[in-house]
Design a protein that fits this description.
By secondary structure, the chain is α/β, with parallel strands linked by helices. The protein is built from five helices and four strands, in the order βαβααβαβα. Strands 2-1-3-4 form a four-stranded parallel beta sheet, sandwiched between helices. Helix 4 links the parallel strand 3 and strand 4. The chain is globular and about 40 Å long. The mean pLDDT is about 95. Bound molecules: 4-nitrophenyl phosphate.
Length: about 150
Amino acid sequence: MKILFVCLGNICRSPMAEGIASHRAREMGVHERIEVDSAGTSGFHSGELADRRTREVLAKHGITLDCRSRQVVMSDFKEFDKILAMDSANLNELRRRCPAEYLHKLALVLTPVGGGDVPDPYYGGPEGFDVNYRQLTQAIDAWLQTLH
Ligand code: 4NP
């Protein structure tokens, strides 16, 4: 099972989701069956490390992250089993690019906890990243329970 998390810049929300999912999969003992990655619908920050505020929130919870930003590519739609968008704007953008045969792989990351958006924290304060962390932890636990 390969899961791709997607946001706009791939420096704040989706790398946070990748770090949480990788950590929780190990804690739940399902890491051999689950592979995770993240990407952005934009390539604005390609090659950059995750935002310092994302890395700080993860570090508070014992998670280190060294991934680099990359843009979603067409082969991702074939390669991954689940492609989980952080918000409806990014989900719509993925739907626009995704071949029809793979549309069933796309979903909002918060679907198993009632849906809605993980808000873009980029221009806000550090508390936005704490909110993202709480939302993502709950949703990812629910996904991992259903997917492995
Ligand atoms: P992300 O946050 O999509 O969660 O990585 C953002 C990062 C950068 C920008 C917007 C959102 N930006 O406009 O550069």
